[in-house]
Amino acid sequence: MSQAPDSAAKPEGREVGGVDLDRLASWMDGEGLGEGPIEAARTLSGGTQNVLLRFRRAGRDFVLRRPPPVPRQGSNRTMEREARVLGAIAGSDVPHPRLIAGCADPEPLGVAFYLMEPVEGFNAVTGLPEPHRSDPSIRRRMGFALVEGIAALHAVDHVAAGLGDFGRPEGYLARQADRWLAQLTDYERHAEWPGRAGLPGVDRIADWLRANLPPEQPPGILHGDYQFGNVMYRPDSGDLAAIVDWELATIGDPLVDLGWIVACYPGSGGPELPVLRIEPWEGFPSAEDLIARYGQLSSRNLNHIDWFIVLACFRLGIILEGTHARACAGRAPKATGDLLHATAVALMGRALHRIG
């Protein structure tokens, strides 16, 4: 991918970004992926704790994705699942990085990882280049492209794509409120965390989600964290170059993704979020415009879309509060924890705005 490098390209060395280049080259030899030294290895920045390493071998560019330097529980499994999704949607209309090869065995590099082709594009949250910055019509196209990308994903037949056993779609929506409240309760292991009282309305929102459960619709692939921070745009237009960061992908009700867009979208109701801001914003379509566009592309029933927006606010807020809890315990930067806690509070405010 063409995320901005954290540092200038380094001369070939034994290790870059926690990746032993000699061991990586040896593994690539066995996979028939070029020969000779790994060159121009550099880490890429992104909206994730996972490591992205771009490099060149035998005249071909690669991007390696692996878990963070101190892997979290389940990190290897997450890498394996990401690679599986990318392989499954190959050849579809979904804009995504093309999977080259994956390694679920931690032996070669100490962790699971996969290789994909670089994506030439930019992340809008990090700043708009020209001509996007000067042209409101391109920015309008960017908004519609965001929802079109996820509509294309939701149109993929997950069973035909080999993902029939990738998730547990039965009762997926009914599990959500209790599943995420349990996650919130788990943060109590950090004794320094102030507790759930710091997220006003969280229990009321959970009760509303249980009481207003929408009917089940046919399941499909959902990205799980679909918003501006996890897409890349083409440098020459408002179209998507790729959807990235697939670590929360599963099988369930795909409208979760549409709700996630609106939950994170500027001007969609309730408090504004202190993150995921794009400047200038003039020209972007409204959240209602995006919902209408999705309705043109999908046969899914949108009568209960507010439920999915509320769920997205609730779920994302609880996920972000986890970083705050770790920061309270000294296990994450305090500034990051404070920012994400403020975002979680704003998300709960957005959910309360929806339920009235």
Record the SSE blueprint:
Blueprint: E1 15-16, E2 19-20, H1 21-31, E3 39-44, E4 51-57, E5 60-66, H2 75-88, E6 99-103, E7 113-116, H3 136-154, H4 172-186, H5 202-211, E8 220-222, E9 231-233, E10 240-243, E11 250-252, H6 255-264, H7 287-297, H8 305-328, H9 334-355
Antiparallel strand pairs: 1-2, 3-4, 4-5, 5-7, 6-7, 8-11, 9-10
General form = globular
Query: Would you tell me the overall average pLDDT?
Result: 93
Stretches where pLDDT is under 50 for at least 5 consecutive residues are 1-13
Text of the CATH class of the largest domain: Alpha Beta
Can you tell me the CATH superfamily of the largest domain? Aminoglycoside phosphotransferase (APH), C-terminal lobe
Oligomer: single chain
Radius of gyration: 20 Å
Proportion of helical residues: 25-40%
Number of strands: 11
Structural class: alpha+beta
Judging by the overall fold, what is the CATH architecture of the largest domain? Alpha-Beta Complex
H and E string: EEHEEEHEEHHHEEEEHHHH
Strand order of the largest sheet: 3-4-5-7-6
Count of helical regions? 9
**What separation lies between the terminal Cα atoms?**
42 Å
When the domains are counted, the total is: 2
Largest sheet: 5 strands, antiparallel
CATH T-level fold name of the largest domain: Aminoglycoside 3'-phosphotransferase, Chain: A, domain 2
User: What portion of residues belong to β-strands?
Assistant: 5-15%
Plain-language structure description:
The chain is built from nine helices and eleven strands. It is an alpha+beta fold. It folds into two domains: 15-116, Phosphorylase Kinase, domain 1 (2-Layer Sandwich); 124-355, Aminoglycoside 3'-phosphotransferase, Chain: A, domain 2 (Alpha-Beta Complex), CATH 3.90.1200. A five-stranded antiparallel beta sheet has the order 3-4-5-7-6, covered by helices on one side. It has a two-stranded antiparallel ribbon with strand order 1-2. A hairpin with a 2-residue loop joins β4 and β5 (60-66). α4 (172-186) runs antiparallel to α5 (202-211), α5 runs antiparallel to α8 (305-328) and α8 runs antiparallel to α9. The longest helix has 24 residues, at 305-328. Residues 1-13 have low confidence and may be disordered.
